[in-house]
Amino acid sequence: MQDQINRLRAEIEAYDLSAPEQLEQFRIAFTGRKGQLADLFDLLKTVPQEQRRAVGQELNQLKQLALDRFAQRQQEQEAAAQNSPADPTFDYTLPVVPNALGTRHPLSLVREEMVRIFSRIGFNVAEGPEIEDDWHNFTALNFPENHPARDMQDTFFITRNPADPTHDALLRTHTSTVQVRVMESQQPPIRSIMPGRVYRNEAISARAHMMFHQVEGIFIDEGVSFADLKQTVYYFVQEMFGQDIQIRFRPSFFPFTEPSAEIDITCLICKGAGCNICKQSGWVEIGGCGMVDPNVLEQSGIDAERYSGYAWGMGIERITMLKYQIKDLRLFTENDLRFLRQFEGVQ
Ligand code: DAH
């Protein structure tokens, strides 16, 4: 037994570990479960009782020796791999493989551009919650209780109590809710835009979605007129789409504005020739607008004798579709990289 131990010690000390693959061979031969050390440990039970303790200790020392050699060589190899001179055949003048950057979503790009355009003429940005109450979504905006106007926008209710709608919780159907919050918390002059996500119980198609985005705007001061509203819309549309675009205001109805209008611009997908996005009319609606109803001002704590104002709500999806010739609304939420990557580098 003693001879075997001595021989094995000599073998462990002399083992050539210069090549990387020898390290694993060393481990298998000596310290592995089927290695020579394991064999000797098995023989320990044949050693006479009075020597077993001493031989056992010696075997343990031998095992430690093998483990130490292994660990030391392993460390050396790792250090060498880190410091080794790089592959001499590597061509440092090759262009780098571009690391694909994430791209910004087209809706974010357009929302940010809208914020920039309106901030240049003095509008600040306000925000409000997506889960709203009946008051901010309907009542404060002049939607009478039980009036069919409430059905204009199919609503996702979270809690609903027909006997007492004042406690309803719902997903806001438009960003006009934030107008109310702004008017409740500030006095004129007010110049704010309010970008945000809205929800309606609608079947999803190329032209409609149950979740989309609007940019609301409100301007309240002394002596504000419909002419100011028109000029602001002209300015915005030309900044967004260029000078050649046609704009028209179509009389409409909203409970919270009087008079009210819808804003149409030339369909940029067919350049006015007629397509399925503009329903062959050559015009596309980008939002609604009007003079804020005096009732709405008063209900939010603003003196309607002294102040007047205009407001609008525009759809970000619609504007993005026109700007980038996108023909299907569903592309915005499908997360198809072939679509999203087309906006790489767009500012
Ligand atoms: N809230 C309306 C909608 O979602 C859009 C709208 C129309 C907003 C007229 C306004 C407005 O601020 O004045 O259909």
TrEMBL record:
Principal location listed in the UniProt entry: cytoplasm
EC number per UniProt: 6.1.1.20
Cofactor entry: Mg(2+)
Location(s), subcellular: Cytoplasm
Catalytic activity: tRNA(Phe) + L-phenylalanine + ATP = L-phenylalanyl-tRNA(Phe) + AMP + diphosphate + H(+)
SUPFAM superfamilies to which the protein is assigned, alphabetical: Class II aaRS and biotin synthetases, tRNA-binding arm
Keywords: Aminoacyl-tRNA synthetase, ATP-binding, Cytoplasm, Ligase, Magnesium, Metal-binding, Nucleotide-binding, Protein biosynthesis
Binding positions for Mg(2+) per the UniProt entry: E258
Membrane spanning residue stretches: none
Cofactor info, note text: Binds 2 magnesium ions per tetramer.
Molecular functions (GO terms): phenylalanine-tRNA ligase activity
InterPro entries: aa-tRNA-synth_II, aa-tRNA-synth_II/BPL/LPL, Phe-tRNA-synth_IIc_asu, Phe-tRNA_ligase_II_N, Phe_tRNA_ligase_alpha1_bac, Phenylalanyl-tRNA_Synthase, tRNA-bd_arm
Pfam families: Phe_tRNA-synt_N (PF02912), tRNA-synt_2d (PF01409)
Residue span(s) of domain Aminoacyl-transfer RNA synthetases class-II family profile: 110-342
Family indicated by similarity: Belongs to the class-II aminoacyl-tRNA synthetase family. Phe-tRNA synthetase alpha subunit type 1 subfamily.
Assembly and interaction partners: Tetramer of two alpha and two beta subunits.
Protein name per its UniProtKB record: Phenylalanine--tRNA ligase alpha subunit
Lineage, top ranks: Bacteria, Pseudomonadati, Bacteroidota, Cytophagia, Cytophagales
Gene name tied to this protein: pheS
